[in-house]
Amino acid sequence: MEFDLSWILLGLPLAFILGWLASRLDLRQIRAENRQAPKAYFKGLNFLLNEQQDKAIDAFIEAVQNDPDTTELHFALGNLFRRRGEYNRAVRVHEHLLSRADLSASDRERAQHGLAQDFLKAGLLDRAEEALRRLEGTPYETESRLALLAIYERSRDWPLAADIARRMQTANQGDFSARLAHYLCEQASEKAAHAQLEPAMDLLHEAVAIAPQSIRPRIELAKVLHRLQRSEDAFQSLVTLSRETPQGLPLAAPLLLEVAAASNHTTDAAALLRQHYQQTPSLDLLDALVALGAAPASPQDSEAQADARSWYVQHLSREPSLVAATKWLAGEKLEQEQFHPAVQKALDHASKPLLRYRCAACGFEARTHFWHCPGCQSWDSYPARRVEEL
Known about the structure:
Elements (H helix, E strand, L loop, with lengths): L4 H45 L3 H14 L4 H13 L3 H13 L5 H18 L2 H9 L7 H14 L3 H13 L6 H17 L3 H14 L5 H12 L3 H14 L4 H14 L3 H14 L3 H10 L17 H9 L3 H9 L9 H12 L5 E2 L6 E2 L24
Antiparallel strand pairs: 1-2
């Protein structure tokens, strides 16, 4: 059977036409998909700008389905899920990204960072810790270490927190000397609570060496020395505190009275308190002077001012203070004494909020002074002064 060349001549144009039609169909499909994906993306962006997060998520899901290889859409979707509190879905998005073999190194680090944030927001601290540790050596290292510090502070794991603080200090990622001193003080407090006073004292000496301008280490050291029957050393520690960080003396005033009595330094303590009160009046220093029975040393003193309680009157002449007036009135005899209890009760009630301490970072108020704010978790955010004095 002879082969007819006419079929080849007819087949070549037909093949060309079929190929051209197929290419046109592919191009139309690609263009349609490309139009559909941006449309869904911009629709989601519009919803996001209008704070319609539910509709934005639906639009981004549609865009991801049309183009599953687009990493930016996955990141946007994961962030939206986390902002809405749908942490499980956010975790799945970031874990899907991490499972992709074609993901670049920078995107992998970004996905790992997003996963760590998901776990943190969900309160899964153990999984967050693991995810954050994988960010060592990445551009997110500093942020991850700060998050680890927050985790260890929250769980009161002070040795691990101190380790992270030392590493950040060594890497010049900030000055963490004051915070490291607090971690050492926390460890010392735990040891002192279990009567391990010598190890506690070693930790406090280290804290003083690391942050000599910090108030807490010297106060805590004086407490431990006093418990070890070394009241003389405890008194000298508080004298050093008054010289190095005088703003912290009001916090140490009650301890100073106790230590001075045990070490026979009552006169020296009175002179120290009087000197600092004259420089910077304080309600706590005022109460300590009254408790010591130290009468004001002034040439204008009259017999009526010879007792220590006249410090309250002198304080009123320097600063208007409801607290000082209330405390002075408590020991006075009124002309109509039958009304004194009711008046005193009202004044005590009115002055009680003025005796609180207030966090400078978040405004949280408390009756006791905190080194670590229970509201905003800031360190050293409570001034050593009462609300009335701010």
